[in-house]
Design goal:
The structure is a homodimer of 163-residue chains.
Chain A: H1 22-55, H2 60-67, H3 71-83, E1 87-88, E2 96-97, H4 99-122, H5 126-136, H6 142-155
Antiparallel strand pairs in A: 1-2
Helix pairs in contact in A: 1-4, 2-3, 4-5, 4-6
The structure holds a DNA duplex (30 and 30 nucleotides).
Chain lengths: 163, 163
DNA sequence: CAAACATTTCAGCCTTGGCTAACTTTAAGG
DNA sequence: CCTTAAAGTTAGCCAAGGCTGAAATGTTTG
């Protein structure tokens, strides 16, 4: 048997050489699982916010279409969001965000924009940047986000150039 | 009613101004959902690869400990991985990777390392970089990955400096 | 060899987030 | 006003990925 979980290497450079210490490793995976739980919610809320902003109203059909899921799925998710007090609506009427929902939407949107801008500043093509940003935004810590923002601003002083 | 899904804005800069065109938007969310399905699998496979590499064998207990989940969860996942022909083992014996599994592990590990190195090169602290890398690695396209690699190499010519 | 302990597996439960199908409500048109 | 289409809702199904608890198998040790 191998003496695992011994891990004296608490300050190793990280990956490839040796395994990260167990407790650190656990933290990484826990963070991913945690992000998992919130990211879909954030995506829905962010989308509702965008629809409200750009189309004046957020309807289930539009959400279903944009997300590429069925209306039933949207309906179920809206139940969830209502129970979380992020979304409100009267039956058969379009959706709106609560204060908490609006805050989340704004937060998400801001994060999304920073990541997207950062990727484009790096030289990633527009299409790819959008897809990657959508996936990455929920896994980027505030620390990294700040750095990304500074970076993007440095590289694109006035405004971003399209790809 | 609002004439949604009309979307003449196919070449808009992207986010914040107007909504992305619907078909583009669908693609983004589809990509995220798709990544979702594979990322856990990749994480498990990558971890098994790491354990094999650094400890000589991969046991359910160790996986459970490192992932921070129960052994039963690991067992169930191993069933899934076996059915996908990524992992093989004889009952009550430790696990090993099939050729496909090994390929996936290597691929994941490489991606992980690039993202991690990139984040550190950006100036993100070690702890944060690890957590973010774990989350980001499954959402970074090959295009972005290539750019990250070039970038990290530029900024850290010889070797990475610790934070 | 047998007991004690660690590990693996199995059975069964829960929640999420998809789906389809059937139904109700709203909106639009003749 | 009645019909029809579109949109929203509800019920019920499924797979994934967690969990606990109990049973089976391996390993170590007296």
């Amino acid at each position: 048997m191998i003496d695992s979980a011994d891990d004296p290497n608490t300050d190793n450079p990280g990956h490839g050489d040796v395994l990260p210490p167990t407790n650190q490793h656990v933290k990484q995976y826990a963070a991913v699982r945690n992000a998992h739980e919130t990211e879909l919610i954030e995506d829905y809320v962010e989308l509702i916010g965008d629809l409200l902003k750009h189309q004046g109203e957020a309807r289930s059909t539009d959400i279903a279409t944009r997300m590429g899921v069925s209306q039933a799925t949207v309906a179920k998710m809206m139940c969830r969001l209502k129970s979380l007090d992020l979304v409100a609506s009267k039956p058969y009427r379009s959706l709106f965000l609560t204060q908490a929902g609006e805050a989340m939407a704004e937060e998400s949107s801001k994060r999304h924009a920073i990541v997207l801008q950062f990727l484009r500043a790096l030289g990633v093509s527009d299409q790819t940047a959008r897809i990657d940003a959508e996936g990455m935004e929920h896994h980027v810590s505030q620390e990294t986000l700040d750095i990304m923002q500074r970076f993007a601003c440095q590289l694109t002083p006035g405004h971003q150039r399209e790809g």
